[in-house]
From TrEMBL:
Subcellular location, record wording: Membrane
Family: Belongs to the nucleotide-sugar transporter family. SLC35B subfamily.
GO cellular component, one term: Golgi membrane
Organism field: Frankliniella occidentalis
Domain of life: Eukaryota
Keywords carried by this UniProt record: Membrane, Transmembrane, Transmembrane helix, Transport
Protein name stated in the entry: Adenosine 3'-phospho 5'-phosphosulfate transporter 1
GO molecular function: 3'-phosphoadenosine 5'-phosphosulfate transmembrane transporter activity
Transmembrane residue ranges: 17-42, 54-71, 121-141, 165-184, 248-266, 316-337, 349-371, 378-399, 405-423
Membrane topology, record value: Multi-pass membrane protein
Length: 441
């Protein structure tokens, strides 16, 4: 008679085998499907490419979900002899102990500054210049990579089409920047279970993918204006995810942005491809971008308020899983090696790709520094000015033409944004005065 020790079913070995087995089953299944499906059809349809990407992400997400349920049902983390693998599982899945000190969010409470007025002005110019240079160059390169043709010394010409590779390279450099920053800067321990980063990491890479992919169907000025108006889906997601309440002026400015967007889109058709399906694809992709991006920001806000980590810790955690998900997807589809080959054939693309990722990563660090030094209001003003400059720069470099009515729509959107900033600041000052009055009374 064979006696089986039931503890083996609750051991780290069993959990490891379960994760690895599920991963390889899903990975092999995906490889079999890809050999059956005609690749040319997939490459021509952004919707099929998205489905393939999601299937590849499932190779990581499904084993992770099963592992979470296994740990929860077997009370695996309550064992005393966890070992190194068990401690890793605890880091990924366990909530922090109540006696552990929580991290401090460096963005929620900007530190008091004792610098002279001249030094503050220099800091503001540094933040303004850093954000403008980083993201204006990023925008120009983004449009160039996705819309322009590359050629080499052999007079070969080709367009780069793999949006996911750009997301991967951006996330690798952002993870490296944030990781190096954390290594040389002392932060309190991050108590957020690592798996909670997966939600916003997934929506973050999907929103970035939609953003790059949309440039195949809409112009860069259209994309920038849509992004400037993303406060509308952010408000919707805020209602759904965080049950937030909004002021009346927030609804008014949201309506103004919507009107401006409609004016721009209805009277800017001369610069678009004349195919109806193309326009629909661009609109759908931008709608998906805004939805995913809105969820990302609201989920990150929820993690900030619950675990009080720093923004750089958030950047590192999110980009860690973004690198993992996109790497598995690229390898499973063979896209990683194709993109690297494209780099070797077209050196100018390799340079553009590196500069794009460098600008994206440095821009994120400038964001955190600006918010921690001057607060979110100054940051929003700088970002809004950057969006205006990005539209002008794109029109000049890539010869986009805006009709008078479309230009007026752009003005309506940005007037609404500045009005929203003014009302936010005014309401904040009124509440501070009321608070001082109640304290003095």
């Amino acid at each position: 008679m064979i006696i089986i020790n039931e503890n083996i079913f609750y051991s780290g070995d069993m959990l490891r085998v379960l994760i690895i087995l599920l991963f390889f089953i899903l990975y092999l299944t995906m490889q079999i499907i890809q050999t059956i499906v005609i690749q040319s059809i997939v490459e021509e349809s952004w919707l099929l490419r998205l489905c393939v990407n999601l299937a590849a992400y499932g190779c990581i997400l499904v084993p992770g979900f099963v592992a979470y349920k296994y740990v929860e049902s077997t009370q695996y983390l309550e064992r005393t002899d966890l070992g190194s693998f068990g401690r890793f599982v605890r880091l990924c899945l366990a909530e922090p102990y109540s006696d552990l000190p929580k991290s401090i969010d460096s963005t929620s409470n900007p530190p008091l500054q004792s610098h002279s007025h001249g030094k503050r002005v220099l800091q503001l110019l540094y933040c303004f210049g850093g954000l403008q240079i980083s993201y204006l160059i990023w925008g120009v390169l983004q449009e160039k990579i996705m819309t322009q043709e590359y050629h080499n010394s052999d007079d070969e010409r080709a367009n780069f089409k793999d949006s996911e590779f750009l997301v991967f390279v951006n996330r690798v450099l952002a993870f490296a920047f944030s990781g190096i920053h954390l290594m040389f800067t002392k932060y309190p321990r991050n108590n957020c279970p690592l798996y909670k980063y997966v939600y916003c990491s997934l929506t973050n890479i999907l929103s970035s993918w939609c953003q790059y992919e949309a440039l195949k169907f809409v112009t860069f000025p259209t994309q920038v204006l849509v992004k400037a108006s993303k406060i509308i889906p952010v408000m919707v997601m805020g209602k759904v995810v965080s049950k937030k309440k909004f002021e009346y002026y927030e609804y008014v400015t949201a309506v103004m942005m919507s009107i401006g967007m409609v004016m721009f889109l209805l009277n800017n058709g001369g610069d678009q491809k004349g195919v109806k399906e193309t326009t629909v694809s661009g609109i759908v992709l931008m709608a998906m971008y805004m939805t995913m991006d809105s969820f990302t920001s609201n989920w990150q806000s929820k993690l900030f308020s619950e675990y009080h980590m720093s923004s750089v810790q958030m950047m590192c955690g999110v980009n860690l899983f973004s690198c993992l998900l996109t790497a598995v997807s690229l390898v499973s589809q063979g896209s990683l090696f194709k993109s690297i080959l494209f780099m070797s054939q077209f050196p100018s693309f390799a340079i553009d790709c590196f500069l794009l990722s460098l600008c994206s990563a440095s821009g994120q660090l400038f964001i955190f520094y600006t918010i921690s030094t001057f607060g979110p209001v100054v940051f929003v003003i700088i970002t809004t000015l950057r969006q205006v400059l990005a539209i002008l720069l794109s029109c000049i470099i890539y010869d986009h033409h805006l009709s008078t009515f479309a230009a007026f729509g752009v003005c309506v959107v940005f007037i609404a944004i500045f009005l929203r900033i003014y009302c936010n600041q005014r309401l904040r000052n009124i509440r501070k005065q009321q608070l001082r009055g109640s304290v003095q009374g």
